[in-house]
Amino acid sequence: MEIIKLNKKRGLIFSLDAAIAVTVVVIILITSAYYLSTASKESTSQVQLIRMGNDLLHILEFTGALDNAVKADIGSPPYSAAASPTATISTSLVNVSQYLPASYKALIEISDIKESLISDTTITNCSSLPAPNPISCCSLLGCNGSFNVSTLPLNRAGNYHLLVHTRAPPSNITPFISGIKGNVSVVLSILDYNRFASTYPVPFSLGINSDLRLNVSYGVADWFKILGENAYSANTSIKIPNNLTFMGTGERLFAYVIQDFFDQPRYARFYIWIE
């Protein structure tokens, strides 16, 4: 009888150990789930900022301010070598202060708005165009022939699409353009009467890419850009302070349409805070 009672006591100890272990595991799982679920939650103030920023982008799109900012970028005529590729969006076009309460500040950024102007390239094999196009291979209008171009300093390496803008000669012959990036052939297809885009993404490295060669015939190339890279986005000139406790951010996809002409979809991003 004593042996039977001893075995029963040992079974009770094992049951208590198992119950305690299960309880500890459950507590750990509940605590982990709680912190994981609350880590991504914004504060009430931050949610209010995000909501206000989304409303701001909606107003700017509805009033045509975003379209005007794209229209007035450095790629608009006249094409000039003096145009700065680091030009910011004019605050007179995107005047956000009139829509925000006092002490609220916002920075607006639009993707794919900058261009790399083709006017100061090194010509390797160039043929002139007939009048009234420029006699020289490169002018303020662009370049014709085979030449090397350099990108703006890219923020990330990756595969991106290339967009090239050209001008047709007086005879309205469709320009022909192709390119080579390193040892990779860039296949470009025409989008409309003056724009060519790569048919598949092309590999680009971090920083300035100077190994891109364009070949243009029956026209002149004005500018090119790398689509979807932050180096080719522009923003308003306001600076974001370094001592912010919280900030609301977000973005909105919009279509640039001026006089029934659809250019391409772009992202408008906002960064909004309270001073």
What would you note in describing this structure?
The radius of gyration is 29 Å and the shape is extended. Helices cover 23% and strands 35% of the residues. The strands form two sheets. Strands 2, 3, 4, 5, 6, 7, 8, 9, 10, 11 and 12 form an eleven-stranded antiparallel sheet that branches. The chain starts with a helix and ends with a strand. The chain has 275 residues and is of the alpha+beta class. It has helices at 2-39, 44-62, 65-71; strands at 104-110, 116-117, 122-125, 138-139, 142-149, 158-167, 176-181, 184-186, 188-190, 195-198, 202-204, 212-227, 234-235, 248-258, 261-274. The longest helix has 38 residues, at 2-39. The protein is built from three helices and 15 strands.
What is shown here, in short?
Helices cover 23% and strands 35% of the residues. The protein is an alpha+beta fold and 275 residues long.
Write the layout of secondary structure elements.
Elements: H1 2-39, H2 44-62, H3 65-71, E1 104-110, E2 116-117, E3 122-125, E4 138-139, E5 142-149, E6 158-167, E7 176-181, E8 184-186, E9 188-190, E10 195-198, E11 202-204, E12 212-227, E13 234-235, E14 248-258, E15 261-274
Antiparallel strand pairs: 1-13, 1-15, 2-12, 3-5, 4-5, 5-12, 6-10, 6-11, 6-12, 7-8, 7-12, 9-10, 14-15
What CATH architecture of the largest domain do you see? Sandwich
Give a count of the beta strands, DSSP E runs of length 2 or more. 15
Low-confidence stretches: 77-83, 128-136
Q: If you consult CATH, what is the topology of the largest domain?
A: Jelly Rolls
Intertermini distance: 81 Å
The fraction of residues assigned to DSSP E strands is 25-35%
**Largest sheet, strands/sense/barrel:** 11 strands, antiparallel
By CATH reckoning, the class of the largest domain would read Mainly Beta
